[in-house]
Target: Immunogenic protein MPT70
Amino acid sequence: MFRKLAFAGLASFIVGTSAFADGHSKDIVDTAVNAGSFETLVAAVQAAELVDTLKGEGPFTVFAPTDEAFAALPEGTVETLLKPENKDQLVAILTYHVVPGKVMSGDLSDDMTAATVQGGDVTIDLDNGVMVNDANVVQADIETSNGVIHVIDKVILPQ
Model:
């Protein structure tokens, strides 16, 4: 019951967020670009050459770190990852934030795991709000034409 209440609160917050108001008719990439708080994520997706994939049919579930989440990484990390010679590592990190299929908040259960496109698993924790590994979900269920975005406050790294 707590889980559903937490998600209902997040969903009502999202409905009032104008940056995502038209998200359902746009794909994941265009929705992220229009939101204005994912400039680093969009730059990373471009550097990793994943734009066409995330604009594809899907569906995809993306755990999208905010610009603040990327800024919290150790100094120089983002710049290093964006270099062409580090493309494989960048792709691994970004695809670790993507789960195949459309997973809405109501589909989650405590301590469940989900296989990522990268090949590793993420763990969902519903005990203290909603967490993906050690990142908090700060906005959930942002529907797009090819999936759903859940905004997280930390970049999650494959193990």
Q: What stands out?
A: Strands lie at 60-65, 98-100, 113-115, 121-125, 131-132, 135-144, 147-152. Residues 2-152 form a domain with the FAS1 domain fold (CATH 2.30.180.10).
